[in-house]
Task: inverse folding
């Protein structure tokens, strides 16, 4: 099943403390955003990549993209104030409507597997919405003003990743409803949930990390090294 993907690259990444958009940070001598885009560029079933960016960084983004070759069309659009606004702007560039599938992915997650993408697309076609996640491994405490209030039962808790996959019609209606009601969700799945649609989970793998803090760059280098060794073996 073919799909289009919105890869979010407009965030400022303040927790990275890099003084610039973390999408430009180098991992193994290649910008982070290029690692992420290549995952979808190498997927036969991806028909188009939509890239919401900070409008002030358009020249910089275009310069980076020109240094690498891509098989897919990459359409750059202006992002918005919030992540949700950037996704909404990206949706306006989707070519295929209705029951076709669109993925929404964080540009800072370069390690998503093709197997996960395929499973998400299949689930979205069948169910309407699908998100990847992993089971929470740590003990979770609820804390107020520095004091532990209770321990949360974790057997039903999942940490959510991206890409999140939806029928285009479902995600567009959810975003339109959010605009009308002024609702700001934490991710696209939360908008779909608020719209009254069911969202289904696909089990992901733990290495699909989001590059958020300086320490994550070390993890990313290690993952790339391990992946390269696996290919050689």
Result:
């Amino acid at each position: 099943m073919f799909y289009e993907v919105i890869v979010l690259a407009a965030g400022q990444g303040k927790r990275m403390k890099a003084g610039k958009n973390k999408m430009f940070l180098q991992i193994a001598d290649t910008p982070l955003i290029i690692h992420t885009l290549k995952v979808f560029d190498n997927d036969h079933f991806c028909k188009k990549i939509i890239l919401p960016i900070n409008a002030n960084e358009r020249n910089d983004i275009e310069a980076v993209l020109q240094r690498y070759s891509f098989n897919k069309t990459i359409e750059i659009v202006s992002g918005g104030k919030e992540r949700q606004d950037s996704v909404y702007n990206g949706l306006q560039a989707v070519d295929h409507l209705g029951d076709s599938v669109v993925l929404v992915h964080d540009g800072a997650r370069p390690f998503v597997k093709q197997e996960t993408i395929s499973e998400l697309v299949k689930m979205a076609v069948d169910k309407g919405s699908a998100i990847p996640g992993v089971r929470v491994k740590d003990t979770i405490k609820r804390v107020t003003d520095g004091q532990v209030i209770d321990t949360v039962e974790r057997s039903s808790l999942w940490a959510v990743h991206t890409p999140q996959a939806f029928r285009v019609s479902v995600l567009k209606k959810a975003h339109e409803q959010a605009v009308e009601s002024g609702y700001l969700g934490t991710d696209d799945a939360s908008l779909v949930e608020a719209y009254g649609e069911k969202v289904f989970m696909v089990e992901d793998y733990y290495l699909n990390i989001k590059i958020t803090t300086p320490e994550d760059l070390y993890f990313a280098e290690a993952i790339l090294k391990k992946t390269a060794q696996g290919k050689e073996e």
Remarks:
- The CA atoms of residues 4 and 48 lie 5 Å apart.
- DSSP finds seven helices and twelve strands in the chain.
